[in-house]
Every structure is written in C-alpha cells, then in structure tokens.
Write a structure and sequence with these properties.
heterodimer; A: 4 helices; 9 strands; B: alpha+beta; Gyrase A, domain 2; Elongation Factor Tu (Ef-tu), domain 3; six-stranded antiparallel beta barrel
C-alpha cells in the first residue's frame, strides 16, 4: 500500500513529521506510514504544555489495539500547544495524520530547528517507499 | 534465533500480512487491521493460521488410563469423535498447559497443545510415561512439525464448512458442518487425513482443521474460496487475541503458568477431582473445596483510558500497594473500551469492585465485571 509523504515536511527516522512555521514554531505528528503500521489508534498521550523537550526525547505515547509506542520529539523546543481533539477521537491520526491528526506544537529552541531530520525523499528511502 | 515459519508463510506474505515474532514463530499479526478482522469474525467469518500449535498422538490399550492420570478433565467421558478441553498440571496444581484432546479411535487420542509449550509438554509426558506402570501399552508421538492447522471462525462458518472437504467423515459424520460443538471427525483429502473439530478460540461458532503440512495450504485456499460469498477474511493473530480476550479464554503464559492453578484461573469446571487420582489432584481438590486465595477476574476501564496491557499493576482506588497484575489486556473492538484479565486476591473479585490500573505515571479507574465480555447471540 502506498503511503503519503508530503514534500514540505521534515521527517525523523522514528516516523514523526515536523512542519516548521515562519514564526519559529513547528507542528509535530506521526507519518502516514506510522499510522498505517499501527492501524487502529485507540489512545494518544500528549506532553504537557510548557514542557521543554530535547531533540529525540520521548514525549508522547500512541496506543494501538496491539501495543503502546513511544513518540520522540523531532526537534528541541517548548511545547506550546497539544491537539486536545485526539483525546475524544484518536482515530483522527489514522484518518488525517498530517492534518487533524497532529500531536503537538513546539516553539523551536534557538538554533535547534530541524537539523538531522530527513526530507521527503530521504524518508521515502528510509521506509522503503523511495 | 531464526524464527520458525508456518507452512503457510508464503501465503501470508502474498496476502500482505504484517509478520511479527510470536514466541519464536514468524506469523501475521494482521493483514489489514486488527479491529476490522475482529469485527469480520463477529459478523461473518475469519480464517486464522494456527500451524504453530503442537500435536501429540497418544495411543495404545493403556492410553486412556495414562492420560486420565495426567489430565484434569475426565477422559473416560470422551467417546470416539469427541473433543475435550482439559489441562495438565504439576503436583503443586500449577498448570503445565491447557489443551484439547480429540478421541479419534477406541485407543487413539490426538492432543492439540500450545506452541510455546511443545518442548515442556513432551518432556513432561515422556517423564510421566516412563513412570507409568503400563507404559508398554502406550505409544507417545510428538508430530508437531508434521502438522499444520487453521481455524475457521464466525457465525457464517457453518453455512459453508460442509463444502470444503469432499466425502463423509471416517468416524461417521456426513460432512463437517454436521459436527456438533466439541465433536471431531477425520476427512480424506488427496490421500491425507484431515481432522476437523467444531471448536475455537474466539467466542464464535467455528471449526478447526488440523492436517499434515503438505495439505494445509490447499485447505486454506479451499476455505477462502468456499467462504468468499459469506465475506470471509484472512485474520491475523492480533484479532485472535482480542477475540479470545472478549470471550475470556485463557492464554498460556498469561492467565496460566506453572505457578497458577486452573482453579485460580476460573477453569474449575474442567477439573474433575471425583474421577480418581491424577497429578495435582489433592491441591486442586482442596482449592475447589476452600475457594482459592487468588482468582482470575475480568475488568473493564470505566472512563477514557489507554488500553490495559499485560504486567500493568492494579490497585484499590488510592492505595499505594498493588493488589495484583494484569495478565492480558487490550482495547475491545466489540465494546470499544479497555478490557483485561487480572489475577487478584479473592476478596476483591466480586463484580463492580472498583480498581485502578497504573499506566506509565498515571492511574485510570476500572471495575471488575462478570465474565465473559462478549457472548455470541443465541442462534
């Protein structure tokens, strides 16, 4: 099955995506490939607003019927918003992983933007879809 | 370690199965999705590869006497063509395995054992046989590697199960769909003997097919073809687990182990202490009479919560010391809620007993409920 890998996002090897905005914030979620592997997302545990995250820090948990998987922050920064709608409807991440299924927003740490993340082509290659 | 592969391995890959390590076996956890596969079994029919299960022949003039001394259920009640759920215990009453015994002939029994227990069971059976007075009149043969197995489960299964294998059963059934619950017969297919039992592990009506590996692929294809109009789907072991959990069937290594007795696991009806002596009988009889100190209970999350999982701790609300441990847990596709089984002190096992489940750094409310979570509607 082909999965979507939008060109305008950055990707972590652990299957998170990051969309940087002009104001120094970035939105984070999990990729279409990840939601497809998990299939039935039944619960999402999000970080608290105000939490300072290091790049690669475990900060959220996504639970499918079968298992709980850790989510790692793709960049360093402070959590400034979380997607509260996932609490009532975690399946939004299955249905719209790059839109309504987003997890949290970060105010990126100075100088710590998206270094070390892959572009769409790199992620496609990493997941064997390239 | 190299993972063992089912004779249906190529088939699973071709069907897009997501292959994972299941206790040393490479098997599909799902094809499209656990929830979809689960609900297909509840609504129509699903087909599972259970080739990892073990098979042992026990035959001879003293086979029944031998088995009755090591199994908890009463094998003398088993007529030719019947299948019986039973357990095998150690002298402390702890469970060696839970299994099915088919009586295929007057002196011929076929045991279907758990994949994870094949080695332990065969060792145990051989040790017990060596100590058995009439051991010369019993032949024990582990044929686990020579047999594959598939389970056809769901309310629509009986509608086409009779069309899968040609001819009538060697024991006397005209076709597989005529089998009653817990009955078994052998059918001939391309020169091989195929056992069909009206048994299952999903809480639905269904049939389990056990056959030599050479023919199991053909049986799989025939079932999918016969069930196409009924909406059959190949299902992975993820759905098998959620289905058995809703039905509150135990899984060895979770609800049962060498330290847990069948009485504690709530399986007392399969322990026939009045039948005469068998391994574990004194301990099991005492537990039956006095009530066990711990019991396996079903519980349900009462609010919005992550699904409970095996090894999570359970507490009384607000308590600091854990009461017990979750043995199996999942998000129930039928109830759309977190459900689980747990081993708890007997005093806290009444329905509606409030509990808390610790998930990572938080606690979530739950309550004991009556077993099972799901019961199929009467047909």
């Amino acid at each position: 099955m082909s999965t979507q890998i939008p060109e305008d996002l950055k990707y972590a090897a652990t299957h998170e995506w990051l969309r940087a905005a002009a104001d120094g914030t970035a939105t984070v979620g999990i990729t279409d490939h990840a939601q497809h592997e998990l299939t039935d997302i039944v619960f999402v545990e999000l970080p608290k607003i105000g939490r300072i995250l290091a790049a690669g820090e475990s900060c959220a948990v996504v639970e499918s019927v079968k298992s709980a998987s850790d989510i790692y922050s793709p960049a360093a920064g402070e959590v400034v918003a979380v997607n509260a709608a996932l609490s009532d409807n975690p399946a939004q991440t299955n249905n719209d992983p790059y839109g309504a299924g987003w997890f949290f927003k970060l105010r990126l740490a100075a100088g710590g933007s998206a270094n070390g993340l892959m572009d769409a082509a790199g992620y496609a290659k990493a997941t064997g879809k390239g | 370690m190299t993972l063992k592969r089912s004779p249906l391995h190529e088939t699973h890959c071709r069907l897009g199965g997501q292959m994972i390590d299941f206790g040393g076996w490479e098997l599909p956890v799902k094809y499209t999705g656990i929830v979809e596969e689960h609900l297909t079994v509840r609504r129509a029919a699903g087909l599972f590869d259970i080739s990892h299960m073990g098979e042992v022949w026990v035959s001879g003039a003293a086979a029944a006497a031998f088995l009755n001394g090591i199994l908890t259920n009463d094998i003398t009640r088993l007529e030719v063509g019947m299948a019986q759920y039973t357990l095998m215990c150690n002298p402390q009453g702890g469970t060696m395995d839970d299994l099915y015994v088919y009586r295929i002939g007057a002196e011929t029994y076929f045991m279907i054992i758990n994949a994870s227990r094949i080695e332990a069971d065969v060792d145990w059976l051989q040790t017990q046989l060596a100590a058995f007075a009439d051991h010369r009149q019993v032949v024990l043969k582990n044929v686990s590697a020579q047999y594959g197995a598939v389970a056809l489960q769901g309310p629509e299964a009986a509608g086409f199960a009779g069309a899968i294998l040609p001819g009538s059963g060697l024991i006397g059934i005209d076709r597989a769909s005529s089998l009653k619950k817990n009955r078994v017969d052998a059918f001939s297919l391309e020169g091989h003997e195929v056992f069909v039992a009206r048994t299952g592990y999903t809480g639905e009506d269904g049939f389990e097919f056990v056959a030599p590996v050479a023919i199991i692929g053909e049986i799989w294809q025939r079932i999918l073809r016969a069930g196409e109009a009924a909406g059959i789907k190949a299902c992975g072991l993820g759905a098998r687990d959620t289905l058995r959990l809703e039905a509150c069937y135990p899984l060895y290594g979770h609800e049962l182990d060498e330290q847990t007795t069948p009485i504690e696991a709530g399986l007392g009806m399969f322990v026939k202490c009045e039948k005469g002596d068998f391994i574990g009988a004194p301990v099991l009889a005492a537990q039956k009479a006095d009530k066990p100190q711990r019991k396996s209970v079903a519980f349900k999350m009462t609010g919005k919560a992550p699904p409970p999982r095996a090894s999570y701790e359970l507490f009384l609300p607000g308590a600091t010391e854990p009461l017990g441990t979750v043995t199996s847990g999942t998000q129930s596709p039928s109830l759309n809620s977190g459900i689980g089984l747990a081993l708890l002190p007997a005093a806290y096992t009444e329905a509606e007993q409030p509990l808390e489940v610790a998930v990572r750094s938080s606690r979530f409310p739950a309550a004991v409920v009556r077993k099972p979570f799901y019961q199929r509607p009467p047909s």
